[in-house]
Amino acid sequence: MDLDLNGKRALVLASSRGLGLGIAEALAAEGANVLLCGRSADKLAANCEAINARGAGKADYIAADLADASFVETLHQAALDKLGGVDILVNNTGGPPPGGAVGMDVAVLEKQFQMMVQRVIDLTNRVLPGMREAGWGRILTIASSGVIQPIPNLALSNTLRSALVGWSKSLSNEVAGDGVCVNMLLPGRIHTERVDELDNANASKSGKAVEDVREASRLAIPAKRYGDVAEFAAVAAFLVSGKASYVTGSVIRCDGGATKSV
After folding, report:
1. 130 in a domain, yes or no?
2. Is residue 260 part of a domain?
3. Is residue 70 part of a domain?
4. Are strands 137-142 and 59-63 parallel, antiparallel or unpaired?
5. What is the DSSP letter of 94?
6. Would the N or C end of the chain have less CB density within 10 A of its end CB?
7. How high is the mean pLDDT of the chain?
8. Looking at the domain assignment, is residue 262 inside a domain?
């Protein structure tokens, strides 16, 4: 299927590794020009070199840290300079530290809110006018299955990512008539470095071996395995494509059936 992405300009946050990188690779393979961002210039440069060597869409990068107050301004200006504008925005952020809800540190909560919610909304506000004027745009926010079924020991993530669900749905209602589709994509257990980190944290907390933690996680998933980044990225590519022009205001799961609610 031709996803009508050839020549589209895509800004993908947190794309030096994991899900963000996988999405950037999938979009470039469909002919989109992608701007990667993250903290590691070396990783980003290597990623772009690999993407550009494959042909199809082109890749460039900007080293920027969500923790910096200038992040949004830096990234938006880079998108204008390197892409000429943004047709597709993929809001993706790293996860906050694990931990429970009891005794949640409000100072950590405030800092993570700025990075995971405030700056996502600010950046989206910067690129929206161009999309609305063009009559075409895609905003995809990557969250977590924890917004539907809270994940134990990830209370901060469950809290902050849930705030984005209400924002995304509200925004979708306001811009759908302008040809801008706004959706959320929820990964379950997709095998990334972040998931390895969480498995290690759970093993440390429970006193179990890491492989035992992983095996228990796999058995709890109807598909009986962790997902692959490429599988997840393929769903993302469709949701930001021209073919998904009547999909907006939705929260899509890619979790192997792990979420128990309908």
Report:
1. yes
2. no
3. yes
4. unpaired
5. P
6. C
7. 95
8. no
Digit-coded pLDDT (tens) for 207-247 = 999 898 899 889 999 999 999 999 999 999 999 999 999 99
Residue 184 lies in domain = 9-188+230-252
**Residue range 55-68: average pLDDT?**
94
Rounded-to-integer distance, Cα 36 and Cα 48, Å: 8
Asked whether residue 196 carries a pLDDT value surpassing 90, the answer given is no
Residues 99, 209 within the same domain = no
Specify whether 58 is located in the same domain as 175. Answer: yes
Number of independent structural domains in the chain: 2
pLDDT at 225: 95
- Return the structure tokens found at 117: 């919610």
What residues form DSSP beta bridges with 61?
36
- In the beta sheet, which residues pair with residue 186? 253
In the predicted structure, residue 5 carries a pLDDT above the cut 90: yes
How far is the C-alpha of 207 from the C-alpha of 219, rounded, in Å?
A: 19
Q: Quote the CA–CA distance of 133 and 144 in Å, as a whole number.
A: 31
Check residue 22 and give its pLDDT.
97
- Burial class of residue 58, CB neighbours in 10 A (0-12, 13-18, 19+): middle
Strands 59-63, 9-12: pairing kind: unpaired
Same domain, 142 and 170: yes
CA 188 to chain centre: 12
Positive/negative CA dihedral, 22, 24, 25, 26: positive
Distance in angstroms (rounded) separating the CA atoms of residues 262 and 69: 39
Answer yes or no: do 92 and 222 share one domain. no
Q: How many CA atoms lie within 13 A of 88 on its CB side?
A: 30
Q: Distance between CA 155 and CA 106 in Å, rounded? A: 12
Q: How far apart are CA 194 and CA 19, in angstroms?
A: 9
